[in-house]
Amino acid sequence: MVEKRLTGSAEGLWKGYKYNGYMAYYLNKNPILILLNVFNYTLKKPHYTGIAFLLGYIRPFIKREEIIKDREIREYYWTSRLVEYKNLVIGRLKSLVSTT
User: Name one GO molecular function term (predicted).
Assistant: First the structure.
């Protein structure tokens, strides 16, 4: 089966990416990862998805809405996930340097 429609577009990309931003807030994702996501989404077409994602994250942040209660999940998305991305980037950089 091949998806012909972009993921998260059943109700429109804007709404889908705003919801993804909200979920990132709810799961307590690190703001550094949020900025990386926004940057990544903005570079890809359609470029406005980065703005939708950022708005979805910022609105509940400003309103101080509730985040997930499970401390283990909060800590995972705040610290562990950031370390995973850092290690991924370092590994890719090392592989680029070793092949040249």
Answer: transferase activity
Classified as helix, coil or strand, 47 is coil
Separation of alpha carbons 29 and 98, rounded Å: 32
Pairwise CA distance, residues 23 & 86, whole Å: 22
Residue 55 lies in a domain: yes
Euclidean distance between CA atoms 56 and 12, whole angstroms: 14
The answer as to whether 7 is a domain residue is no
The span from the CA of 77 to the CA of 94, in Å, is: 25
Considering the domain boundaries, does residue 71 fall inside one? yes
Single pTM value for the model: 0.82
